[in-house]
Amino acid sequence: MRVIRQLSELGEVPRATALSIGNFDGVHLAHQQLLKRVIESARAASALAAVITFEPHPARILRPERAPSLLTSTAHKTGLIEKLGIDLLIVLPFTEELARISPQDFVRTILVDGLHAVSVHVGPNFRFGHRQAGNAQVLDELGRRHGFRVEILPMLEVRGERVSSSHVRQLLTEGRVHVAARLLGRPYSTAGPIVQGLGVGSKKIVPTLNLAPIEELIPRDGVYITRTRLGEKAHESVSNVGHKPTVGEHRLTVESHLLNFAGEIDGAEMEVEYLYRLRDERKFPDTAALKAQIQKDVRRAQQYFQHRRAARKRPAADSMR
């Protein structure tokens, strides 16, 4: 996948494009459905499958006091979009100047003159242009005028839950990570460098890996069953999100205890995938009481992973009958 940050980097577009436009924060199931339609349309028209997104998130420029915490960094979002099979990703810098462009000029200069769009695919709540004056219906009218097709996909629901970035954020702030995973099509995760902790855990409680502070949204404080990825390998783990009140109030941290692990840690980065929330973080009378509770958490996590492994084996065993 080719990634550019200005249309001028593109040079002469070798052929027409089928595309979508949006923030795509989280690249959840509705985004994935939308981008699969872009790819299908592009292949049918012998066109490039393209995506236009923005950095920073427009709300950070237009309404900084209300800007949401992001689900995915630009790098993470780029990787997820590439895995879907998109050919071209345009990450436009969102500036005050871009915010002032009218829907008509956005379509004419970027979609038509810049990218030779033959089809544009958006969701029902799509808005664009100065003061968000354009919506999906306006885009459809402009498409008819300029000769490209517009497809408006309906809102997607999974088990009665609306699939949207804002709803995923709400679920994560409530700690409902297992429901968020259904809407994302994968476990929610946070990633970054491994940093040195206070050393209290390894000496008095249990050894942990500590995630460096990140800008992306962290789920509600508490203890979670997780998978912690180090390089290409994923380790079963229990992770604490919080302020470690038993050993004194500290800044918000994410720390993971790897289950059934022995040896040296390979790599300087980690990714924590949140599978299920076990309990609230709370202050214990002493570190011995905290260690006893963590041992209970570990046993519950081990049972969880045992059930998952058994469930994965069951269909294969049934098919052999």
Please name the defining characteristics of this protein.
321 residues; alpha/beta; Rossmann fold; Elongation Factor Tu (Ef-tu), domain 3; six-stranded parallel sheet; 10 helices; 27% strand
Helices and strands, with pairings:
Elements: E1 2-4, E2 17-21, H1 29-44, E3 48-55, H2 58-62, H3 74-84, E4 88-93, H4 96-99, H5 103-114, E5 117-122, E6 127-128, E7 134-135, H6 136-146, E8 149-152, E9 157-158, E10 161-162, H7 165-173, H8 177-184, E11 188-195, H9 200-204, E12 209-211, E13 222-230, E14 233-242, E15 253-258, E16 269-279, H10 287-319
Which residue ranges are poorly predicted, with pLDDT under 50 across at least 5 consecutive positions? 200-204
CATH class category name of the largest domain = Alpha Beta
Strand percentage, roughly?
25-35%
CATH superfamily of the largest domain: HUPs
Structural class: alpha/beta
**SS element count, helices:** 10
**Distance linking N and C termini:** 44 Å
Q: Which outline best applies?
A: elongated
Instruction: Report the major sheet.
Output: 6 strands, parallel
Indicate the radius of gyration in whole angstroms: 23 Å
- Counting DSSP E segments of at least 2 residues, the number of strands comes to 16
- CATH architectural name of the largest domain: 3-Layer(aba) Sandwich
**CATH fold title of the largest domain:** Rossmann fold
Strand order of the largest sheet: 1-4-3-2-5-8
Please provide the ordered H/E string of secondary-structure elements. EEHEHHEHHEEEHEEEHHEHEEEEEH
Helix share, percent: 25-40%
Number of domains: 2
What's the average pLDDT?
92
